[in-house]
Amino acid sequence: MELKGRAHKFGDHINTDYIMSSRHRTQTLDYRELAKHLLADIRPGFYESVQPGDFIVAGKNFGCGSSREYAPKIIKAGGIAAVLAKTFARIFYRNAINLGLPLIECDTDQINEGDLIRVNLSQGKIFNETTGNTIPINPLPEFMVTILNEGGLVNFIRKYGKFTR
Amino acid sequence: MGLTIAEKILAEKSGTEAKAGKLVVADIDVIMAHDSLGPMALEALTEMGEVSLPRPKKICFMTDHLVPTPARNYAQMQKQMNEFAHRWGIRLYGAGEGICHQLLVEKEVRPGQVVIGTDSHTCMAGALNALATGVGSTDAAAAMATGQLWFKVPETIKIILLGHLPRGVFAKDIILFIIGKLTEDGANYQAVEFTGETISSLSMASRFTMCNMGIEMGAKAAIMEVDEITRQWLRQRGDQEEIQSVKADADANYSQILEISVNKLEPQIAKPHQVDNVVPLKEVAGTPIHEVVIGTCTNGRLEDLELAASILEGKHIARGMKLIVIPASRQVLLEAMAKGILAKLIEAGGMVLPPGCGPCVGVHGGIPADGENVLSTANRNFKGRMGNPQANIFLGSPAAAAAAALEGKIVDPRKYLA
Fold this sequence. Notes:
The complex is a heterodimer. By secondary structure, chain A is α/β, with parallel strands linked by helices. Chain A contains seven helices and seven strands, in the order E-H-H-H-E-H-E-H-E-E-E-E-H-H.
């Protein structure tokens, strides 16, 4: 699978409150509507700047804070193809994979705001077409790849009915 | 090589060796879902197809995030949870009964269990020697449908606390100090064991405060061993069963061992907008405060309210100050009423909210104005956390919060404590 899009660069410790403040849920529970508030508290107008297939590229501990699963859900609904970060907070990590949103752990210092990048998950590589750099991806644990390949945990359970010991 | 508490609990519940780094599938003893993120779990369950719930007795639903409901959407979500609970015979804690984490430790969790909840602060129940961890809605749904969930067995950081807290310094100050040292992701993917003579001298309420905030350094679980104080807590809530502690082996393997002496610890404050932005209170003394929140799952137990009341008794909060008090559960609320603690807080100018998350979820119950500073005893100070990204949130102990309410600025609470 190869994904191609522009990088939107963020810093360290982007928490789930920043991804979207829960106050917007008083207005609507529709994820496509909520996606309009994606990262708006720290970058107003972000949603409007995203082209479908773009990437969020962040520093360390992306997704820290709450266990609210609507965080990765609205990232997906906002048209983001994958999140690239140095590290992810663990609850967010599980939630994103469970929803089928690819997370890519890599050295994001080699990606700048607006860079055009290609992500090749099967080769485990990122090609930064703007700078010409190739960046290796830290591989996902095998079990998470299985969930991702099924399109998320809902599909996994629907297909297998249980976890296998 | 010996085992940590997390390794032992996961080995027992997965029926396999569970050394750090291994992926295991564990039986879940308690699955908690609340009114904010539970409905999404119900959606996931529906999407999973024709599922039946093999063990509905292991599931509990809590109504705490939006009580009383501030908007139609949330009322609908609570109705959905209530109806589902009724259909499947799931234990439902209704609006006003308490905050999910407090109810888990008052009613549900026992030592040695694996506990999951749709809330990151589920780690609080680790103070009862359980492996308790926050998950998302889809993970909760998978556990409801299968009775199990997969885990990567975490490495563990052991934190040994030595000495005794000086007067006017509390468990909240200890955990803020530790988070400041370890930083916001210092324990990411790992468990934390709290041990040492300081812990032995702390009440369960104080231990809950510490484990509650384990997630603020990224921890998957924050765990303590069982002692007489733990046994007393369990007995008082009517637990008749034998109480065994899961103990770490002396030769267990830790990713890190920290020794911290609390003898000279001072009151601490986490400054905006990160929980690890911790400084001694004196460095921010004098900062104007416009709103104070005392309570929540972090510091809403009887000893917290009693401490705040001892500072506020017979006095009045600063002009224009908003003081919001949130007991962690109905039980705490009733006890605080019976002991006259609530009266003292209200006479001093406080407003009491029903047990629930209140303004900490940023939707209702005390959203600050632009440019205002809040001193809260809750666990998060992210920008926008309380519903207004133009406000600033400071975190501290109930004593620091009560003193700030009186003076309208951050002050050392020790001058109010005899």
